[in-house]
């Protein structure tokens, strides 16, 4: 992972962004200072100062070989995190998986990437396995299309430059209410996705069904769009109205 891929999202707070770059680099695999500098592109003194600081706060730890690895404070923070979209999705995904017999996921956009926040796989057979926490670029795939179709115009313009789809395609997705793809994100994989809305009606995620093209076909929306839209609506209802 180079610095460019690690620092896709910028908060405008330099030390914070660099600290996150360090955390992400070490999350890939334990590393020493030289390896950390190689992965992040940060100067040696900066990388060392940030890693030691994160270690002080138990966000990083060091093993006997002197390599940093994710610290216990990360799991402690994660255990207390409340994600209503993920929690609602986990109540709905089992039924969608049962209906389709395929892999099902929910994605959220983070900058120029989408991250899988919930996923379930069919118990048997060939599947499209996407572990929770997996990140994909916003340049391809039905979930990327959905998340970008309802994004702000400035975000659309910034991300469409590197995408395999066009602004016209996003307009059609908004009109139709769902997106599909075949072989865009990965060869041999097809998917169909729909927007998930919160209590205010804002699109906050995308719910997807994905699997082998040989089984789902090149137009999976014809088969699964209605069930997918019903699942998206079920999540929306579980999120409920937002209280002021």
From TrEMBL:
One of its GO terms (biological process) is negative regulation of DNA-templated transcription. It comes from the Bacteria. Keywords: DNA-binding, Transcription, Transcription regulation. SMART domains: HTH_ICLR. Residues 73-241 form the IclR-ED domain. Gene3D superfamilies: 3.30.450.40, Winged helix-like DNA-binding domain superfamily/Winged helix DNA-binding domain. One of its GO terms (molecular function) is DNA-binding transcription factor activity. Pfam families: HTH_IclR, IclR_C. Residues 13-72 form the HTH iclR-type domain. This is HTH-type transcriptional regulator KipR.
């Amino acid at each position: 992972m180079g610095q460019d891929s690690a620092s896709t999202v910028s908060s405008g707070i330099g030390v914070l962004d660099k600290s996150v770059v360090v955390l992400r680099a070490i999350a890939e695999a334990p590393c020493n200072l030289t390896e950390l500098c190689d992965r992040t592109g940060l100067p040696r003194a900066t990388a060392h100062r940030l890693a030691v600081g994160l270690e002080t706060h138990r966000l990083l730890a060091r093993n006997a070989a002197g390599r940093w690895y994710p610290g216990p404070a990360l799991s402690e923070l994660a255990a207390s995190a409340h994600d209503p979209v993920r929690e609602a999705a986990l109540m709905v995904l089992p039924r969608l998986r049962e209906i389709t017999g395929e892999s099902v996921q929910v994605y959220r956009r983070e900058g120029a990437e989408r991250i899988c926040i919930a996923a379930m796989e069919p118990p048997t057979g060939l599947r499209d396995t996407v572990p929770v926490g997996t990140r994909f670029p916003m340049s391809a795939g039905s979930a990327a299309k959905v998340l970008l179709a309802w994004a702000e115009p400035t975000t659309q313009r910034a991300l469409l430059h590197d995408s395999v789809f066009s602004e016209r395609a996003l307009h059609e997705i908004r009109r139709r209410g769902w997106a599909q793809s075949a072989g865009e994100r990965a060869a041999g994989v097809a998917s169909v996705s729909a927007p998930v809305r919160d209590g205010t009606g804002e699109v906050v995620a995308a719910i997807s069904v994905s699997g082998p093209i040989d089984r789902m076909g090149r137009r999976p929306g014809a088969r699964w769009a209605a069930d997918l839209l019903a699942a998206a609506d079920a999540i929306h209802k579980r999120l409920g109205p937002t209280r002021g």
